[in-house]
Amino acid sequence: MESVQAIKQRFEIIGNDVQLNRALEKATQVAPTDISVLVTGESGVGKEAIPKIIHALSHRKHAKYIAVNCGAIPEGTIDSELFGHEKGAFTGATSTRSGYFEVADGGTIFLDEVGELPLTTQVRLLRVLENGEFLKVGSSQVQKTDVRIVAATNIQMFDAIKKEKFREDLYYRLSTVEINIPPLRQRKDDIHLLFRKFASDFGQKYKMPTIRLEEQAIQLLLKYHWPGNIRQLRNIAEQISVLEGERSISAFSLNSYLPNAVNTNLPAIVGGEKKESDFSNEREILYKVLFDMKGDLNDLKKLTMELLKSNDGEKVQEENETLIRKIYGNSNEDVIEKTHNPIEVLQLQEPEEELAPATQIQEDKYHFAEEIQEEETLSLQEKEIELIKKSLERNRGKRKAAAAELGISERTLYRKIKQYNL
Q: If we measure between CA atoms, which residue out of 159, 144, 186, 221 comes closest to residue 23?
């Protein structure tokens, strides 16, 4: 049995990752047998190398090796491609055709993207795995074949089984031995090695000096997520080799070739200034929240006045229990109980604040801005002017609509407009 290092040299596999080495070990161990193998891993990790290794190290190495991309063959013709068809089996079948399982008799078939097979084809494949028998499309004659099947997929097979897109019995027949290829982001020490190999290959191919990465560019390369894995790394190495005039590549230059590089583990760039419009939007949201809070407080004042004037505290409590819960929260049952005693309710308010008539409370609603005076650098007057202007602009100068939006009376708004000469 060949060593892992010899396998890497023979099949030009770059990397020293522990998971990668384990996958290669399993491939060499299972190769001399006829056991079915399922290769799993994300798209672009290099799953196609495993079936080649298995075939080359098996007793079938002198027979045919056929790779079939199951996801690239239309559903209507895949049965014909795999198992063949008889003349006249369907429109366009002008002659008898041998399928891959007949042609590869005695050899190995690699079914890439096996998770994309239609359910009807999965039934046919299961029969081949169980007893080596298959039927051509349009034929009733059973044929025998002796093939080694190695399959690969980048989907989560148990999810596909749960969604009834893949047969559970077929999965267990295919995955007698399962070999997983790790994604590139889990092979940190191999990323730069692979990039250097690709850069050297493309330098020779295009007859130009080999590109080299600066230290910061190497760190960026290692921190990138690599959703496309080795295939994406190879494509980027080729792009840079062809497009960049300088052969020393900086992190800035490399970053322009990495899609969504902002999602890497690099520290976020800080120090940027917010636009004035961002602060304005935040202020408007804050004003709206405080308006709502002010409204709740005024409702509570009205309720307290009703309790003071009423001789039937329990009735007032029942009618306004929803309001009490809204203001104090459902968990504060003590507050609801205290509504039996109007004096205790009054103690929940600010002790130095005098109760005002309901109409005056409504008109003074706008003066909430005093509560956030310490948090804003603008004066109260400037904030009032800014808020009134924005409301009038949104409502196209209609004072009634603007007053309703601001939560004040139209008379108060008119007084403010005259006061600030708006």
A: 186
Q: In a structure prediction context, what are the per-residue pLDDT tens digits for the chain, which is 422 residues long?
A: 678 999 999 999 999 999 999 999 999 999 999 999 999 999 999 999 999 999 999 999 999 999 999 999 998 899 999 999 999 888 888 899 999 999 999 999 999 999 999 999 999 999 999 999 999 999 999 999 999 999 999 999 999 999 999 999 999 999 999 999 999 999 999 999 999 999 999 999 999 999 999 999 999 999 999 999 999 999 999 999 999 999 999 999 999 999 876 544 444 444 444 444 455 566 666 766 777 777 777 777 777 766 666 655 565 556 566 655 655 555 445 544 544 444 444 444 444 444 444 444 444 444 444 444 444 445 667 777 888 888 888 888 888 888 887 778 877 887 888 887 77
Say if CB 250 and CB 217 are below 8 A apart. Answer: yes
Tell me the C-alpha distance between 247 and 61, whole Å. 43
Please name the residue ranges forming H helices in 274-353. Answer: 276-309, 313-328, 333-338, 342-346
CB 410 within 8 Å of CB 399: yes
Contact 27, 21 (CB under 8 A): no
Residue at token pair 């070739």: 257
Q: Facing residues of 108 across strands?
A: 65, 148
pTM (two decimals)? 0.61
d(CA 348, CA 69): 74
96 half-sphere exposure, CB direction, 13 A CA radius: 7
The answer to whether 183 and 19 have CB atoms below 8 angstroms apart is: no
Are 212 and 254 within 8 A, CB to CB? no
Whether 16 and 157 have beta carbons less than 8 Å apart is answered as no
The conformational region for residue 137 under phi > 0 = left, psi -120 to 50 = alpha, else beta, is beta
Residues in CB range of 206: below 8 A, 6 or more apart: 241, 242
- Report the 10 Å Cβ neighbour count for 287: 20
Q: Give the pairing type, strands 133-135 and 177-180.
A: unpaired
* Radius of gyration, alpha carbons of the chain: 37
